[in-house]
Specification:
By secondary structure, the protein is an alpha/beta fold. Helices cover 30% and strands 19% of the residues. It has one domain: 3-Layer(aba) Sandwich (Rossmann fold). It is built from 11 helices and 10 strands.
């Protein structure tokens, strides 16, 4: 057991654990983060950027607003982007999890990426999950795992190879992708909806600027423990309470059991990369492949913009070729 968990458990027993702060769960959708708004905010420092638009491709079949699970009278949706096969072969697949501080944003932000992945022969799915205005951690984890199981349950119709499924996320979505990727089939993180006859295991993870830890010494939350922000609103407690949950939601804490190869695509915003280097060291000792690409002088949301979008796309495709090699 790693030293951070031991420290956290010791501290937890001295903390008075109150209930989750229901006033943070407003029930009102937060629209503060969007691609257009982010673009306007970044123009001052990056006047050369171009927001990558959605684009139809003749070799891609699209289907929107597909219900993948019902979370208690709450239908959850994803969008489907499939290569139009010229033969009866099956393809790798990527499920894409959007960012927005676990509280805002939506899956449409990554439609351009999904379309271009499908155009290159890789099935792609943009996934909705419950945000913190609606449900606290671990609801979003349950949702993403249910989406993975839906893809596996429908793999025959989708022409997806269930041994070649990758989970990709940006920012908060990157944290979710990493957490789901390192915790396959852990009962307390599985949820009780979706087709439970299929495993939530994925075969690769692509983490785009998503933190690996809320409790590692490098973590922003560790260094700003009294600040209440997006991660606290998602966990449901300030960082000074329920440290066991903060650790439980940290992908780094499951590194020793991980078997999925990881690709880290990173901006120049270092605070988003807590635990990454130590995680990679652990994977190196285990013989698990990891790769890291850093885009210098780039904003946190670099993956949405040219001049970085196409290199991001190409790095994803190259990584999947390595991760899914015969």
């Amino acid at each position: 057991m790693n030293k951070y968990i031991l420290t956290i458990w010791a501290l937890t027993f001295s903390v008075y654990a109150m209930g989750q702060n229901t006033q943070w769960r407003t029930g009102i959708r937060d629209t503060s983060y969007s691609s257009r708004g982010d673009y306007r905010n970044n123009l001052k420092n990056y006047p050369f950027i171009k927001l990558v638009p959605a684009q139809k491709f003749s070799n891609v079949k699209e289907k929107y607003n597909v219900v993948y699970a019902d979370a208690g009278n709450r239908p959850l949706h994803l969008d489907v982007f499939l290569p139009k096969h010229k033969n009866k072969g099956i393809t790798a697949a990527v499920l894409i999890v959007h960012g927005g501080g676990w509280r805002s944003g939506d899956r449409s932000q990554h439609i351009p990426l999904a379309q271009r992945l499908a155009a290159k022969g890789i099935a792609a799915f943009t996934v909705e999950y419950r945000l913190s205005t609606e449900a606290f951690y671990p609801a979003a984890v349950y949702d993403v795992k249910a989406a993975i199981r839906w893809v596996k349950a429908n793999a025959k119709d989708l022409k997806v190879d269930t041994a070649k499924i990758a989970l990709l996320g940006f920012s908060a979505g990157g944290q979710l992708a990493a957490l789901v990727g390192v915790t396959p089939n852990i009962p307390k993180l599985e949820g009780d909806f979706g087709d439970r006859s299929y495993s939530s295991k994925v075969n690769a993870v692509i983490d785009i600027d998503g933190t690996l830890s809320f409790v590692h010494p490098e973590a922003w939350e560790t260094q700003n423990a009294t600040t209440v922000g997006a991660s606290a609103w998602w966990i449901g407690y300030p960082r000074t309470e329920r440290l066991d949950l903060w650790a439980e939601a940290s992908p780094f804490e499951y590194a020793d059991q991980n078997s999925a190869p990881f690709l880290f695509l990173n901006s120049s915003v270092e605070r988003m990369h807590a635990g990454r280097d130590d995680f990679r060291k652990k994977m190196e000792k285990k013989g698990i492949y990891t790769e890291m690409v850093t885009f210098k002088d780039s904003p946190h949301s670099f993956c949405l913009y040219e001049p970085w979008f196409n290199p991001v796309l190409n790095n994803i495709v190259l990584f999947l070729g390595k991760a899914f090699k015969p």
